């Protein structure tokens, strides 16, 4: 009975052009979604807008979202349209038409997906190299540098020269050395705004990863390796520094906060620390500034501590809980 009714109903009105209908619905949805992604969502995407790297990553994520949304909406539109229009009606026991391949669909599928994949590969390569780049560390000899990087022996505020900052990971703290400030070392990170920064990332013991999230910098910190990464902070404010490589039991506690400050604030911060470290002998006691360090070779403090039994196999650069260092995560 159903078999005799279905053809009659279909013959009563001409079949609508489903492809045009689906494409029209999809086009409207895709344009709305892409406009929303680009103009509304983009400024809120991670990692924010604090540096040139961060902005570059935000743009890259936006481009991928703008590309992905029409693909996703294409699937959803077809799915929804099929559910509404081609679902089995009550009493319909007829089989669907036997379909064997569709040359047009196959050609379109291969062309569109190839274009998307190849253009993404070209875009990704360009974005990795030409603008601020990934900032993910390029080893000791970067094959590219962002424009504006001029590294000199000294750094003064107001100059456009690059500030060199060495980020040293160890279980389970970050410390920073500033070769342009006499090799001074700090436990916190302050950076001047609008100044190109050249990070040299290394480790004293195991594998860590230096991740200044809001700056869009994430570079491997490996013992014996000098990993160079560039960034230019563009907004004042606080950022988080985390270790991003499982490095031991207190890996989760290996984070602190840094600040982007004005150039003159940075200068006075650096000068006061440098003066203090000169006066109290810290500067003289530190090993000379180098691109990598071997904690077993620390000639002065390290050996003195080792004699007292304070330095562990992890090669502590700083005294452990025995000396009552506040906040030292070695001591639970
Ligand atoms: Cu770590």
- Proportion of strand residues: 15-25%
Helix-strand pattern? HHHHEEEEEEEEEEHHH
Largest sheet: 5 strands, mixed
| Tertiary shape | elongated
Kindly state the mean pLDDT as a whole number? 83
How far apart the termini lie comes to 79 Å
CATH topology of the domain at 163-294: Immunoglobulin-like
Catalogue the unreliable spans: 1-11, 311-332
Structure description:
With 332 residues, the protein is α+β, with helices and mostly antiparallel strands. Among the domains are: 16-87 and 104-129; 163-294, Immunoglobulin-like, CATH 2.60.40. 38% of the residues lie in helices and 17% in strands. The protein has seven helices and ten strands.
Keywords:
332 residues; alpha+beta; disordered C terminus; binds copper (II) ion; Immunoglobulin-like; elongated; five-stranded mixed β-sheet; disordered N terminus; 10 strands
In short:
With 332 residues, the protein is of the alpha+beta class.
Helices, strands, pairings?
Blueprint: H1 2-12, H2 18-41, H3 52-85, H4 103-129, E1 163-170, E2 173-178, E3 184-186, E4 189-192, E5 197-203, E6 208-212, E7 217-221, E8 227-231, E9 237-243, E10 255-261, H5 263-279, H6 282-285, H7 301-308
Parallel strand pairs: 1-5, 4-10
Antiparallel strand pairs: 1-2, 2-3, 5-8, 6-7, 6-9, 9-10
Helix pairs in contact: 2-3, 3-4
This protein binds copper (II) ion (CU).
């Amino acid at each position: 009975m159903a078999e005799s009714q279905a053809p009659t109903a279909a013959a009563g009105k001409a079949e609508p052009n489903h492809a045009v209908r689906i494409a029209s619905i999809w086009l409207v949805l895709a344009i709305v979604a892409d406009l929303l992604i680009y103009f509304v969502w983009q400024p809120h995407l991670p990692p924010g807008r604090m540096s040139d790297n961060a902005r570059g990553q935000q743009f890259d994520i936006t481009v991928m979202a703008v590309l992905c949304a029409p693909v996703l909406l294409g699937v959803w539109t077809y799915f929804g349209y099929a559910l509404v229009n081609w679902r089995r009606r009550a009493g319909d026991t007829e089989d669907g038409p036997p379909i064997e391949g569709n040359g047009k669909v196959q050609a379109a599928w291969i062309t569109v997906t190839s274009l998307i994949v190849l253009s993404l590969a070209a875009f990704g390569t360009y974005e990795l190299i030409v603008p601020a780049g990934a900032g993910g560390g390029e080893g000791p000899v970067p094959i590219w540098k962002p424009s504006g990087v001029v590294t000199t022996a000294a750094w003064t505020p107001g100059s456009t020269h690059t500030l060199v900052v060495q980020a040293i990971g160890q279980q389970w703290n970050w410390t920073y050395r500033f070769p342009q400030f006499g090799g001074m070392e700090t436990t916190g990170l302050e950076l001047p705004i609008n100044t190109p920064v050249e990070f040299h990332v290394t480790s004293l013991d195991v594998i860590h990863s230096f991740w200044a999230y809001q700056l869009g910098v994430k570079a491997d910190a490996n013992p014996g390796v000098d990993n160079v990464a560039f960034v230019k902070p563009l907004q004042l404010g606080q950022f988080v520094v985390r270790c991003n490589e499982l490095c031991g039991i207190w890996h989760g506690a290996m984070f602190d906060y840094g600040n982007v400050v004005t150039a003159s604030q940075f200068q006075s911060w650096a000068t006061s620390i440098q003066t203090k470290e000169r006066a109290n002998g810290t500067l003289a006691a530190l090993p000379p500034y180098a691109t990598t360090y071997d904690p077993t070779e620390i000639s002065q403090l390290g050996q003195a501590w080792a004699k007292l039994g304070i330095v562990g196999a992890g090669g502590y650069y700083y005294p452990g809980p025995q000396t009552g260092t506040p906040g030292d995560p070695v001591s639970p």
